[in-house]
Amino acid sequence: MSMVVRAFWLILCAAGLALGTGCAKKVDRVTVDRIIARGMAYEDIDRLCAVGDALGIPMAGLGISQNALKAQVLANVSAALCLEPVVREAQIDGAIARRVLSGEQKVAAVLDARYREERAHTRAAYRYKQAWDALEAEYGPIGEACPRIRDADQLVFLMGLYAGLHGMLHDQAGGGHVGVSFDTLGKVARGTACIDNERLWHVPGAFKAAAWATLLYEDEGDPWAMLEAEAAAGEASGVRLARAVQVMILANADRTDALRDALQAHARSLEQTPTAPEWAAMDQYALDVSRHELDRLWAAAEGHRAPSFGALPGGAEEAGEGNGPFAADPFAGGDPFGGGEEATDGAEGSGDDAPPDSEE
User: Fold this and answer.
1) What pLDDT does residue 71 have?
2) Element spanning 93, H or E
3) Measured between alpha carbons, how far is 92 from 50 in angstroms, rounded to an integer?
4) Angle, nearest 10°, between helix axes 280-302 and 84-100?
C-alpha cells in the first residue's frame, strides 16, 4: 500500500467513515511506523511537512488511545516544519534590507520582515507545543524518571524533545505569545538520558548541550565543547542533525566565529560522508538549517545569499572578487552578440535599419 493510499485511509478513518478504537489504533500505528517514519527516507522536506500538516487535525480528532499521542507528536512536528521556511525567508529579507536599502524604504522593509518573522515564529511555536504536550501526555512529565520506550518509538521521543527545544526558541523569538515555559529546556536536557545517543546520531547529546548552553548551565562541563563533540561524532553517521543543532544554537547566541567554523565543518562532512539513505530527510533538514545560517551571514555582509554551501563571506568565492557575475566587464571583448568590428562597420554604413543580409 502506497504512502498516499495509507494517508487517504487515515483521513477517511479520522473523518468518521470508520469508527471505534480499533480504527484509531490502526491509524496511529500506521502513522508512526509507515507514513512519518518511512517518510524519513525522502529528501523533500516540503512533502514531509505537508503530510504532517494534513494529518494534524484528523489525528487530534481520534482521541486518546494506544499510540494516538505518539502519532500526534510526529504529525505536529512535521506540520511545524512547514513554517520554518517562512521564518527563514523573513529573516533573509530583513538582513538584505538592512544591507542594501536606506531611508524610509529600509525602515519599512525591515519592520515588515520582522513582523512576518514573529508571526511565523508564533505559529511554529504553537505546533511544536502541541507535539510537546502530546509527548508528556503519552509518557508523563519529561525530565523525571525515564518512561518505558519501545525501540520503535525512540524516534517519536526524540522528535518530542526536538519539539520542546524548538517550541521554546520559536516562542521566545515570536514574543512569548504561546507560553512555552523556559523550564522546558531543562526537561529536554534531562529527557535525553532516556534514549540512545549513538543510535540517534548523537542528536540527544546535542539537544542536552544546546539546552545547557542556552541556560548558561555549566555544572556538567562546558556546553559549547559538548556541542562540538556531539556534532563531530554525529557526522560520521551520515545524519548531520547534531551539527545543525550546533549551528542553530551558535547563531542564536551570536557566536559568529564558532558558527563559521561549524558551517565549514558541515560542508566538509558532506564531501567526506554520504547521506544515510533511510534518513535522507533528517540530513536534508540539517543542511537546510545550516544553509540558512550561512545565507544570513552573506545577507548581512553582502546583501545576498551564499553562492555555494561552505563559502564564507569575505573569502575567495565572494561575489565581486573574481568569481562573481559582475567581476568582469562583459563588453570588454567587443560586441557581446558576436558581430565584432566588421559587423558593426557594415551596420553603420548601411544607412537604414535593414539587417546586413537583407536584399531590401
Assistant:
1) 85
2) helix 84-100
3) 23
4) 20
